[in-house]
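Internal QA ticket QA-208
Title: Verify multi-chain structure generation after dependency bump
Assignee: T.L.

Test input:
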Amino acid sequence: MKFTLSWLKDHLETSASLDEILFALTDLGHEVEGVEDPAARLGAFRVARIIEASQHPNADRLRVCRVETRPEGPDGPSVEVQVVCGAPNARTGLIGVFAPPGTHVPGTGVDLKPGVIRGVESNGMMCSERELELSEDHDGIIELPEGTLLGQRYIDYKGLNDPMIWVKITPNRPDALGVRGIARDLAARGLGKLKDMPIVAIKGQFPSPIGVQIDPALKAKGCPVFSGRVIRGVKNGPSPDWMQARLKAIGLRPISALVDITNYFTFGLSRPLHVFDAAKVKGDLRIHPAKGGEELLALDGKTYTLAAGQMLISDDQGPESLAGIMGGEVSGCTPETVDVFLESAWWDPITIAATGRALKINSDARYRFERGIDPAFTVDGLELATQMILDLCGGTPSDVVIDGAIPDMTRSYRFDPARVGALVGLDIPESEQRQTLTALGFRLEGNQAFPPGWRPDVQGEADLVEEVARVASLSNLKGQPMARMLPGVPKPILTPLQKREKAARRTLAALGYNECVTYSFIDAGAAALFGGGSDALRVDNPISSEMSHMRPDLLPGLLRAAARNQARGFMDLALFELGPVFTGGEPGEQRVQATALLVGAQAARDPHGSRRMVDVFDAKADAEAVLAALGAPQRVQVGRKVEGWFHPGRSGEIGLGPVKLAMFGEVHPKVLAAMDVKGPAMALTVYLEAVPQPKVNATAKAALQASDLQPVERDFAFVVDKGVEALTMVNAAQGADKALIAAVRVFDQFTGDKAEAQMGAGKKSLAISVRLQPTDKTLTEAEIEAVSARIIEKVAKATGGVLRG
Amino acid sequence: MDGLDTLRNKFIAAIAGASDEAALEEVRLSALGKKGEISALMGGLGKMEPEARKAAGASLNVLRDEIDAALRGRKAGLADAALDARLKSEWLDVTLPGRPRPAGTIHPVSQVMDELTAIFADMGFSVAEGPQIESDWFNFDALNIPPEHPARQEHDTFFMHRAEGDDRPPHVLRTHTSPVQIRALQAQGAPIRVIAPGRVYRMDMDQTHTPMFHQVEGLAIDRNVTMANLKWCLEEFCRAFFEVDEVELRFRASHFPFTEPSAEVDIRYSVQNGQIKLGQGDKWMEILGSGMVHPKVLAAAGVNPDEWQGFAFGMGIDRIAMLKYGIPDLRAFFEADLRWLRHYGFAALDMPDLARGLRG
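Actual output:
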């Protein structure tokens, strides 16, 4: 919402400075977005007189002028200045506009400095209109009439000293979309007095030749009241300068007096109006729901097709206006308009909002009607606008025609002066509270407050508190300490899952991964690669096709991040993200996962030969480290039921029975190619919610079992089929004597062509180290031999392996 | 016994002259070995008269001990010299890099969320969460934003696709963390104090906006919580979070459908040498929106507004992270540029807590 200071002062009698007004606006909730103060830009330009203009000694086109200036204003001393001027009209006796050195000239962008022009000193400038950015005129310097007061600011002389103020109006305040509503708020704040705006009903000279009828369906909801009148014999020329200046200042293009008057009412009083060229209206105006399919060429030059139920104003020849949103071109006013039909109606906010949104029309009228303007001002607004048309365009008014009735919005709420203290914590005397509400237009009857028609937002007691506190100023609020709900040391507040997120995140960072936060939406192609991309997870109005689907997994985002980093020359990466992925389109169909991605080498080249390419076992170790940090049980199964975006032979799943805790593996080469990542690339995902909660909640740990007896380590190398998994062997060995065997560890694998040459085709060797921990007596050689035999037997049974000779 | 002196001199000289352990061993054998000269003299004692044997024995013992000590001394010296020589040969270029240890980082958004949690936990707030695909009832209606209200249009909402035949209003990507207020109140009732940090979504993308960003919601409902308590709470938070001794907040009337009264909150700051200094100066920066929870919102969440009242606030996490850590561009938060992650990220063990301070 934009307006000018003089416009505001039409409604507000005030001696407040611009700065005081700006502060109050923001403080009242009308945040000032910007101010254009002509005084700041053009305040240095003052009226001056050329005492004498003589020919420049060294230049034919230049004149040397003795200029009488009054730098401190008309009452200040006169100071003579020498100026070299190139304007053809610079002559003795000319009264014009002078800018002293130090002035920024907006039209040229130059900061004036004292100078010497062709050997003659020049201290300032006589200006053209273009130099002040007032017009394109640069044929000569500005000439003012004889007798113009010297020393006054040119903007004051010209009436240009009208700062434009731009405020952000919150959607609850349709009244503040008019200058008068803003003035009322400022008056309530104590910045002046709201001027009276008397409404005089204008007597019609003849019955309106155009009648109005509201369709019964719309009378109930849509258009409760529609009023208007014809004004005959108007002269629709340009609107007066003062009005054009105000409209231009707020960014509107003056069109003609009639149209400008409707805009002036829209912004001045938040009362949108419409003017029809009465000569182009055939028969009466009907306000009715569209059947659907009607077309209308609107004033913005576009043709709109209406859907059934949208509100239309039609005459005998068809649709003439998109009710409450935009008028039609056919019956629009032109400079030739002689008879005008002036419309003032009240439209249902919800209907207007729905239609405006459907037709994608953002008009100043829609903006106000959908927020809810004052219904009581419908006919009053019509009378005021009639008066202005008569004043500016002449003409003869008809009687008012009206259908429907002004809807009754009367309601009241209990006014409890103690609430402001209890809810806000501001101490405001009751008399001041009552004064504030009254100044805002509320009617108080005892302890009942009746909001005015222009405040549809006031819907309860809390709103009364807000009005009082807002006008008193929340900047006066002092903070008051608030005790904890319970005394003493606070209890921990994180949920188990929140603690896990923290632990997983910090563990991954400690393992060397850089945490990323990537968008929750990805493109359809990437989503499809990772089991997503269904319609249920599609965003209907994505900001771009790259962000069309909710992510089914974190890996696509990380792979895209890896590709971007590789494009910048970073080939070796360790990235992770922890966050939600989406399994369906219903609220709650999301889960938290931690996914990490390793790409390229695990270290840079160095003199120690540390560098090697990442492999599956890096990913596995990190997955295990995260699981350990989350308190997952140590005994888990490793299976091969992995998702399709992993290499089928080089990936695994860590689980507990049917519950999948984590996945790790090499990313499928096809996926890598599709995501433009140069491999190798390993990934791991931990499903944070899947890890079971520890059953015991006690802080004490189980007693330490540490035997003083010497443990015994025995190594076994087995020859097995290539496809035998080490975990099968380890579990078999472990099962040989659960009490005695403390640990089984794989310490060597011999595989490949050499191994097969030695041990036979399709064979490999796995070596395990078994640690025996006796608890009551040292083991004898015979006992060790017995256990060893059982281990060999168990392993043979489970894997078909034989001891390597 | 001139003979012994001669012998002593001879062996002492030989010991001193031995250049390595082998030569020294030869000297030892020739002096003290079974067939050594001193051993031979010792062996000859048995044939002497007791008196003479006693005198000669004593002298020989002295000589033997002396030579033995000299041998040991020389041996230690040779070993030291050998070790010195070896150590000298074992020189390494220690300016070579150490073996690489990976160093990961925590994203500033996570770090700031941990900081928020630490501060608000101390004030008795717990952490609540809610879904990011949200029903329009939780995101709007329950928060007193009716359908077709212009306030709803201002949210630039992302809508989820609706299957044909499913006539429910489309779900939305939550446009703010405020729906968590409703969910937390429904689950726990009053009194309650929670914060709800998380991702939110708006259809907006330009220099200073991204279609996804992070907010933290705060909610405190009790029998007599006031807006003055809200101001104190925010002042305490800002002082602790921005790690400054003084902050000054200014409440400015505004409008949010779910609070009444509503206030935008500005923080006082100045710019010194291109750096933002909070707490002093003559400028004000908007940092969050807040207010007293609207009675209709409490009622929608099943809490009786005649009994309970309280405040809510919503703050941009990315924004306060930028402000605190001098991060210039919001869009970079979500681009995962390794250089950015390393530069603005935090160490894994840099875990915010109030006892040691938010930063390490």
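Spot checks passed. Chain B has a mean pLDDT of 92.
Status: verified.
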